[in-house]
Amino acid sequence: MSNRIPGPICSSKLGSDWIDEGTLCRSQSSAGGPLGMLMSMVMAADPPPLSEDERALQKWRKDNELEKKQSKESLERDTPNHIKKCIAKLAQLSIGPRGAWRSSQERDLILKKLEALNKANMIKWLENIEDGRGGHDRGEITVAVDLHWGNWDEDAWMKSAPVLVHEGTHAVWNDRHFEQYRAKWNREHSNSCKDHPKGEALIAEEMYAWENELKVYEVLVSQGLIDITLAERLKRVSSLETVVREAYSGWISLDGFK
Ligand SMILES: [Zn+2]
User: Each residue of 232-252: pLDDT tens digit?
Assistant: First the structure.
């Protein structure tokens, strides 16, 4: 995939006051009556010659639009295939306390769910994801498109793999599989659970998803993956609960203060 796509920095540099000569011309010459006639006479006159820079900018804009359109189309076309590759690679990762997966049951549960969602085109790469990495909402999983670029015949799958496991964990969270963990959480946080049952349930779910994501990340680091955000989280793994509580402090107040 080309890395010449300028992305949001260039479009914000151009700004909303940028006027497309083509559009301006069309909308003005469509005015009716004498004014419209006058306008089309004015428009028919030779436009002032463009400077070198202006011509280069116009060409860049045209090429950029085309490139953006093509890359969006190829992204949509290739996504199911790429996710499939990623799931297949994830299935091969190790199991156990220092492995990528806690158990083979849990691996199968999460990967089967991801497979089903992928078949239904419910996993997508998106620009501008609210928390920056991924999301799970009403059965649809989104992954930040920044994690997609790279060579998919080699190692590009690794960048999205931890996020897919994180969001996949959310997608199966209501399965009975996690009841033991939920019960343990409720026991260990019994006071807060009394006052904030919804908030604590969300924190528990998020903790579990973060742990799963980090387990996968730690194994993939040995295969060459670099992810600055996950590396930072891994440094604070012994206080992961504090990190999650800080990141989602608003959730506890969902239950109201007592
Ligand atoms: Zn999450």
Answer: 999 999 999 999 999 888 888
In a domain, 52, yes or no: no
Residue 221 in any domain: the answer is yes
Domain that residue 154 falls in: 80-257
Mean pLDDT on 190-199: 92
Q: How far is the CA of 132 from the centre of ligand 1 (A)?
A: 11
* 241 C-alpha to ligand 1 centroid (Å): 13
Average pLDDT along the chain:
82
Do strands 134-137 and 140-144 pair parallel, antiparallel, or not at all (unpaired)? Answer: antiparallel
Asked if residue 44 is part of any domain, the answer here is no
Distance CA 121, CA 165 (A): 17
Give residue 31 CA to ligand 1 midpoint distance, Å: 53
Distance from residue 210's CA to the centre of ligand 1 (Å): 7
177 is a domain residue? yes
Instruction: State the distance from the centre of ligand 1 to the C-alpha of 7, rounded, in angstroms.
Output: 26
Residue 67 has pLDDT above 70, yes or no: yes
Count of H-run helices and E-run strands, the chain: 12, 3
What domain count does the chain have? Answer: 1
- DSSP β-bridge partners for residue 142: 124, 135
